[in-house]
Amino acid sequence: MQELSMDTELKPAAYWAEYAGLMLIAMMGAAVTNLMPLIVGAFSDSGLFSTRQVGYLAAADVAGILLSTTSAFWWVRRVPWRPAVQLSLLLFIAANLFTSWAEGYSALLLLRFAAGVACGVSYAIALAALGDSSRVDKAFGVMVTIQVVFGTVGFMVLPEMIGRFGYAAIYQSFNLFLLAALLLSFVRFAQNQKPQHSVQFELSGRLAPALWVFCGVVLYYFAQGGVWGYLERLGVSAGLTMAEVGYVLGLGFAISAVGSLLSGAFVGKYGRSAALWLTVAVQLPCLLALGLLSSGPAWLIYAAATIVYQIFWSFVVPVMMGIFNDVDPSGRLIVFCLSAFKVGLMLGPPIAALTISTFSLTAVLPLGTVAIVLSALCLQLAQPKA
């Protein structure tokens, strides 16, 4: 049995408490992103907020996570992990609790930003701890699987709960898992095995590729923040019920694991450039199909388009991370990949909301199309010339 800490006398029960706690934290670190369509829908259906306000509320969590994860490059190996995680989990739980009671837009915006900051702190520490595992590939594989399972169950269970309790249902369900992670942290928490005193890295001659890859990842996740965030609204506007939309998105989320499983084999045979442009060639027709929901069998079109779209989202993410990692041979720059994800996700919902309020709901689709194509171009430029 592989142990996460250096304590060779760690008892099995304590080991599993440590491991489960880290996985729960990592699972909740991606919860807002994975369930963003339901969050946007719940805020919209509350009738308390304008379209633009909903976009900013959806982006507030991501903005807080971005702040924490970007700064984590400098602090994650310097702070005491257990107290930092416990404090951040308490703040996350409290912000979720107050979110369920608050109805004012400004108060909610601040609460969701605070929740994002707390989430990012615990998420960054959990990722660093999992990275210390002697079987790091397996640890991250388990993490992604748990995130997918949580998203799948969330899409299938939460729509009915949202219908009864509003957006409070989302955040109180989060608190159940956060409370479990907090309790497990008191049993045992991972120790920092790689304390660092210097965080400098050299990018001489690699600054241009670094900027290209960062922009490419931001643009791709900008598209996801806009398109993914409003997939629930697109389905409902086409006549599907929230339950039907939740079932389709949950099914697609579960199936999307196929994309990440096939990505490595495809890149090994055909290369990263082929993977990038295959993603573009598949996802753009999916966006076109979503624009035609009112002219055909809406349920079937919606299901096919969103499921295939999600498969190729999972397919291209490892490719982007591989390009990101290659820019800096020391491997330190890769920590900013998560920041790039969050920058895109933070910008996507409010800009999509502005576009929708100016034009129409389906205007997010050409916005996403342009961003995906520009992303592929940037990522292509980030790679070394053959």
Structure description:
The chain has 386 residues and is mostly helical. Helices cover 78% and strands 0% of the residues. The chain is built from 16 helices and no strands. The chain has helices at residues 12-29, 31-34, 36-45, 51-75, 81-101, 105-131, 136-165, 168-187, 207-227, 231-237, 242-255, 257-270, 272-290, 298-327, 335-358, 364-382. α5 (81-101) packs antiparallel against α8 and α13 (272-290) packs antiparallel against α16. The longest helix has 30 residues, at 136-165. The model is unreliable at 1-9 (pLDDT under 50).
Helical content, roughly? over 70%
Give the amount of beta strand, in percent. under 5%
> What are the segments in which pLDDT stays under 50 over at least 5 consecutive residues?
1-9
Instruction: For the record, give the distance between the C-alpha atoms at the N and C termini, rounded to a whole number.
Output: 43 Å
**Rg, nearest Å:** 20 Å
Question: Based on CA inertia axes, which overall geometry fits?
Answer: globular
- Determine the mean pLDDT: 84
Number of strand elements: 0
Which series of helices and strands comes N to C?
A: HHHHHHHHHHHHHHHH
Number of helical segments with 4 or more residues: 16
Class computed from helices, strands and strand pairing: mainly alpha
Biggest β-sheet strands, sense, barrel: none
